[in-house]
Amino acid sequence: MDSACCTHSRPTFYRATMQVLNNKVLLLNLRNPKKVTNLIPKSRELPDNKVAVKWGLDEVHTLKKLNIRNIPSPILGHYNWPGQHKPFDHQKTTAAFLTLHQKALCLNEQGTGKTGSVIWAADYLMTVGKIKRVLVICPLSIMDSAWRADLFKFAMHRTVDIAYGKSNKRKEIINGPAEFVIINYDGVEIVADDILKANFDLIVVDEANAYKNTQTQRWKTLYRLVSPRTWLWMLTGTPAAQSPTDAFGLAKLVNPMGVPKFFTAFKDMVMYKVSQYRWIPKESAVQTVFNALQPAIRFTKDECLDLPEMTYVTRDVPLTPQQKKYYDLLKKRLVIQAAGEEITAFNAAVELNKLLQISCGAVYSDSGETIEFTIDNRYRVLKEVIDEASHKVLIFVPFKHVIDIICEKLKTDGITTEIISGDVSAQKRTDIFKRFQETSNPRVLVIQPQAAAHGVTLTAADTIVWWGPTPSLEIFAQANARVHRPGQRHPTTVVQLQGSNSEKYVYKLLNQKIDVHQKIVELYKDLLD
Question: What is the DSSP string of 219-261?
Fold first, then answer.
């Protein structure tokens, strides 16, 4: 997995026969032992060209600088892997790789547990005194639901805070005592000077394609924060997915010597100009990008043999001010109603549905009219998920009116998309399903869950996104089974978008395999408390 070459020169590597003795000492067989003993104080030359070296992180980094390959990180022998879950083998390998590289890319596919690997690697570096503080830069939607939640699962002994809100609040947290500070992309520029002064030793950038363009203020701000001494780990499951030129921004941060100084020179290396406005990738572009994006590690979901067959993740999406206003107004009205009459299961289901509709972007009024809300926040998060997905994607949208809006936005962004709903004829559905399974397009299906919850095989996708929850446990389970069935060659990921308490409650019941309808009155009362 580890490759350390660059586009300008290829270093000479030395292979060494190596053993680990008593979990403390590396025993190497080298042609020139003095090359090691002259540089590493805690080493000793032995007969027959052998060298005994302390198995410590500093010593291993020195051996790496001497271009001695295949030296294992001491995390594999000296770390107790804390937390609620045992690491998978690929997570241990990924964490070990990261501890050996001050600047690196983790290109593991979405759904392989990258955050856990990073947290363990960072915790180990803290334990051995290499770093003291970590700044995690990620999308707003996963600050709490992914990063803070995973830090609690894997390193609950560490202090964590989220730098979000007004500038003063962000600054207070940046300058506070938390060992891990989580911040969203656009929040970094607001407190960049404070971040510089706070001396973060390690910066982790999740979904790092957000930094592919060196001309953006976002990229320039991060570039200013990264010094030669800063550890920098950049995470993305889809590097240079749109164009080979997308690699330039990431490489300039992680491996600046692996690419030319200017973007135009890199573009000439990977693209061929066929007309005034049209460029196509060169045959050598894949290898050039591979060389530029080093050092890097990548595991696909197929390579992670110990992964569960289906993984559920949550993304938080704040309601827009307009949505929040209507949501709160409806909730107040329901509280008044509930105080004066007995709540029936039917009434509870109707009113809960309205709260879910507002959360998803459109609500049907008592007169049958549709009130639309902007879906920009939720769409942005949806697009993040699609951009990180290596294969095709299904989007389940419980409320019909939002489906057309989502589809148009995806098409505008150049993503081939088809709709499956009750308005689409059976013959056309069959044709769409066939093309989805057998050809490269469409890449995305936007589906009304009731229209494809039974009997359809859609295993060309390995990622499902729930735009909002369905109250039906049967429909939820059957819809997820469209990808999790015979013929699926990859582990699958179910992403749940949530922005309101009503959505969180419903997802919680669905994930616990509790029928929402059985708990509807109780759920309704909880929401109104």
Answer: HHHHHHH--TT-EEEEE-SSTTSS-GGGHHHHHHHH-GGGS-S
